[in-house]
Amino acid sequence: MRLVVVLCMSLFCIISCDTIVGKHGNASYYYKVTGTATSVTISANESAIDGLVTSLPWQSEEWTKHVDDETSILCAITAVNTTTNNATVTVEIYVDGDLKATDTATGPNCMAYADYTVDDENL
Fold first, then answer.
1. Looking at residue 47, which CATH number applies to its domain?
2. Would residue 96 count as lying in a domain?
3. Cα dist. 49→3, 32, 37, 61, 75 in Å?
4. Which of 97, 99, 102 has its CA nearest to residue 113?
5. pTM for this structure?
6. Which of 11, 21, 31, 77 has its CA 20 to 30 A from that of 94?
7. Residue 68 forms part of a structural domain
């Protein structure tokens, strides 16, 4: 009888643990760049943004990608003040509408950088 109870409990644990897999679903994200710089060069993981020269404020389009226990999203952005003015540049990363990472830099030719990884642990 004891062996049957131990085997049943072991089987229950295996079945239960097997169904506990990381969360999965879609995550939406976008970038914002603000500050007093009159011209910045922006680079991000998305090729459409890489090397973009623009004025501020600026916001990217929103992307939606799938995340599970084997797939993650690296969100990263860099903005460089391309002027010699003592200006400020701030980069922000939003995931599902929430601010997840930010950085601010000040000075001529300064660079702000932020990154955030969306995975099954923080989805």
1. 2.60.60
2. yes
3. 63, 12, 18, 10, 12
4. 102
5. 0.80
6. 21
7. yes
CA distances from 21 to 4, 68, 114, 119, 121 (A): 28, 9, 29, 13, 10
| The dihedral sign for the CA sequence 16, 117, 92, 86 | positive
Domain of 68 in residue numbering reads as 20-118
Is 8 part of a structural domain of the chain?
no
Q: Give the whole-angstrom CA distance, residue 64 versus residue 46.
A: 12
pLDDT, tens digit (0-9, with 9 covering 90-100), for 85-115: 999 999 999 999 999 999 999 999 999 999 9
Cα separation, 30 vs 68, in Å, equals 19
Q: What letter represents residue 67's amino acid?
A: V
For residue 2, is it within any domain? no
